[in-house]
Queue: 2 jobs
Job 1
Amino acid sequence: MMNIQNLIGGQHHDASAGHTFEKRAPSTGDCIATVPASTAEDVDRAVRAAHGALQTAEWSRAGAAARARWLHRLADLIERDRDALVELLALEQGRPLGEMRMMDIPMSVDTLRYFAGWADKLEGRTIPTDGFMGRPTLNYTRREPVGVAGLIIPWNAPLMIAVWKLAPALAAGCTVVIKPSEDTPLAVSRLGELVGEAGIPAGVVNIVHGMGAEVGAALVAHPLVRKISFTGSTEVGRAIAGEAARTFKRVTLELGGKAAQIVFADADIERAIPSLIAGMFANQGQTCAAGSRILAHRSIAQALEKRLAAAAREIRVGSPSEPGVQMGALINSRHLARVRAHIEGALAEGAVLLAGNENVPPGGNFMRPTMLGGVHPAMRIARDEVFGPVGMVIPFDTEEEAVGIANDTPFGLSASIWTQNICTAHSVAERLEVGAVAINSWSPIDARLPWGGTKHSGIGRDLSKAALDSYLEEKIITAAL
Ligand code: NAD
């Protein structure tokens, strides 16, 4: 049993009120850690530590190249500890080890190195004007860190998403308070230890554990926090946007999705199937980019549905550490019940179960990958974000209809298109109201590519130079000559 603590000003602390909560393993239900149930007082201490660190010579005068070196060192340490981190993530998330080895760890390392590369390239501009009040002027800009950033992290890829936010924030010269999800406190806590080992000055990175309504909300309301970067549900994102507006905080909101994977009649089906399956079921379907809506041309829809249902039945579900397991457990029993309720609702609305519900392993929050037939675009299962391993095939007749169904959702995060016709591919890509379109693939994410949504999927972008810019202010300095 692990005893997790907050990290404030370089020191490990229990919650100031002394309260804790239990973290249970999704695949067994066993209690694996006690975690501080922090309060607004702990958040205040952490924000003050971060604010203090902003002004210390150790951080603010360290220089851009030093920040780059710290980020590279942190990347080295994640690489060194990759096996232990993968095991920690599997334990707290219930997710198979292979996915984290392939995605979360390499991407965390790559993201740190990518933003390390930016740290010493935060160049300003000189801007010619006609001068002011008859005098010529020299006008130049400086890129300055926004200040203390609050980073609020979800449970579905806790280490990777924490790094997506931490790396650009530190490259920009900000200091941070991280609020990990109450469902996944372990790997982010370990990241905090590696931050110390990397030599990043005390107080630059602080971590406060606890509930969203208490710790997350206190961070969003705190007057010394200048920016909030949040990844999580659309509902909480909406509340954060409202509260952050009171103190004019900068916000990046990475919210929910309801991605369509559009399969045209000429698609390379053999290549598409494994990718469509990954889009629906990777991470137990608990990804923001989950491509749960397969929109298939009517001429191929029935055959494709059969193949996908058969492939779903083949997926091996079980404990993350069991060799050969492809799908693990859902994050907690409440979420499992919510996903099941979505399926029950769909069946009540007339959908039919093509795969799922059979041979569910005992013990943890397991469910089988589920394929539903007979789904109509107006049904709730085709509109709401389920955030679980549930997919469906919806037939379409024309390109227009496919684009219409894909866009007919409040979400706008991502989509895929499967076709061999480049004109169809690029013309459909242009008309999809989303932040990311994948052609003949599912959602390739890369540190160099901006990631984020339109509509109710959020505001702003993680990753790429766009993320870096969101942690910087551009200040104009005008000298009258
Ligand atoms: P969630 O919104 O329940 O929680 C996310 C984080 O916000 C947690 O740390 C939580 O404690 C905190 N929080 C909760 N209430 C809060 C409040 N009132 N004020 C401040 N913070 C609060 O989301 P989740 O269940 O952890 O994650 C799943 C959601 O995240 C899904 O909707 C998914 O689509 C989305 N997501 C989006 C992206 C993206 O890049 N767009 C990536 C991953 C996940």
Job 2
Amino acid sequence: MVEETIFSKIIRKEIPADIVYQDDLVTAFRDISPRAPSHILIIPNKLIPTVNDVEQEDELMLGRMFTAARKIAKDEGIDEDGYRLIMNCNAHGGQEVYHIHMHLLGGRPLGPLLLG
Ligand code: AMP
């Protein structure tokens, strides 16, 4: 049994979030605890707990996460200067919310390592 997280409620708009993009496959919203001027989480609308649970049938959605990231980076005005995309998996990866998500971080130079 896969347990929902707070992110499912954000997708369904049952709790507030600053949603910057949503389509049939993915939702993107600003991180509640931003670690860069632009810090956005891009998540699948379908609940997948970790990257270890990704299946071949998810490949379209995974590609959409990247095209959404490209669009959002442009909308944020950070595409030319650059940005970082991060996905954390399980305890050693520092994953806190078990609904896969891509962190999009930018708006300042990030240095060699950020989350950890
Ligand atoms: P991770 O450590 O990769 O699992 O990242 C989880 C991220 O979710 C953290 O950066 C949190 O700040 C963020 N987060 C948790 N709850 C919320 C929320 N309700 N709205 C927006 N971001 C959230």
